[in-house]
Amino acid sequence: MKLRPVSTVDALADALRRRVLSGEIAPGTALPEQELSALYGVARPTVREALAVLVHEGLLRRERNRSAYVPEVTLADLDDLMYVRRPLEDLMAAALAGRPVPRADAALTRMAVLPADAPWADVVAEHMAFHEELILAVGSPRLERLYAALAAETRLGLVRLRAIYHDRARLVDEHRALLDAITAGPAEAARRATAAHLVHAWGAD
Predict the structure, then answer these.
(1) Which terminus of the chain, N or C, has less C-beta within 10 A?
(2) What is this structure's pTM?
């Protein structure tokens, strides 16, 4: 098995991504290229490319004559996000009811075995993987595209859960209960469990 070389741009983008998704870089924080260049010991063009990667992913925003920054995702944004996610995940639950989803189960297992001191970005990654594997298991390219369009805001929203789920075992248990309900069926029970799962408390704005 060949390992893909990691470029300096990729390495910097990954480092910044992890800081954003762990909540270390707060919403609204500007990321000046010169400061990042000095902090990480890389050239400014490298910084510019790494920031462009995260802007493309939706984790950063860039406006004319302003440094890239972490966008603010408000409670109103998150309410609207869930408003759109619910019908998509309802379709998923109805389609998968009564079927095992091994790849979602694997993501949940990875989340469960994360060390207690793992960065929150690792929890976000497995949390996202769990939900994305459920969507992928449906086998609808259009459903996948619609869900993918919400990924950046969903990931930024999940950063908030760090303040709510001090005990990560509770997060795992909730997702295990959801997966069990979907795989056990019937469809109505799976849909009810999915709807209940998507009722979030996001913390203070």
Answers:
(1) N
(2) 0.85
> What confidence tens digit (pLDDT) does each residue in 16-75 have?
999 999 989 988 899 999 999 999 999 999 999 999 999 998 899 998 888 999 998 888
Cα–Cα distances in Å, from 42 out to 25, 100, 155? 19, 46, 27
Collapsing DSSP to helix, strand or coil, 8 comes out as helix
Distance CA 130, CA 127 (A): 5
Measure the CA–CA gap between 69 and 29, rounded to whole angstroms: 5
Distance CA 77, CA 70 (A): 15
| Alpha carbons 92 and 186: distance in angstroms, whole number | 13
3-state secondary structure 58-105: CCCECCCCCCEECCCCCHHHHHHHHHHHHHHHHHHHHHHCCCCCHHHH
Task: Please enumerate in sequence order all residues whose Cβ is within 8 A of that of 49, keeping only pairs 6 or more positions apart, or say none.
Answer: 9
pLDDT > 70: percent of the chain: 94
DSSP annotation of 3 reads P
- Which uninterrupted H or E stretch holds 12? helix 8-21
For 114, the token pair is 């994360």
pLDDT in tens, 100-120: 999 999 999 999 999 988 999
185 burial via Cβ count (<10 Å: 0-12, 13-18, 19+):
middle
For 47, residues 6+ apart whose C-beta sits below 8 A from its C-beta are 12, 33, 36, 37, 40
